[in-house]
Amino acid sequence: MAEVINMPRLSDTMEEGVVAKWLKKVGDKVEEGDILAEIETDKATMEFESFYNGTLLHIGIEEGETAPVDTLLAILGEEGEDISSLIKGGASSSDKEEKTEDKSTSTKESSKDAPVADSSKDKEEEKEQESSSNELPEGVEIINMPRLSDTMEEGTVAKWLKKEGDNVEEGDILAEIETDKATMEFESFYDGVLLKIGIKEGETAKVDSLLAIIGPKGTDVSGIGTTTSAKSKSSDSKGASSKVKEVPEEKSEEKKEPTNTTEAKDGSRIFASPLAKKIAEDKGINLADVKGSGENGRIVKKDIEEFTPSKKSASDAPQTASTSEKSVQQYIPAGDESFEEIKNSQMRKTIAKRLGESKFTAPHYYLTIEVNMGIAMESRKQINEMPDVKVSFNDMVIKASAMALRKHPRVNSVWTGDSTKIAKHIHMGVAVAVEDGLVVPVIKFADQLTMTQIGNQVKDLAGKSRNKKLQPSEMEGSTFTVSNLGMFGITEFTSIINQPNSAILSVGAIVEKPVVKDGQIVVGNTMKVTLACDHRTVDGATGAAFLQTLKTYLENPVTMLA
Question: Cα–chain-centroid distance for residue 364?
Answer without folding.
Answer: 27
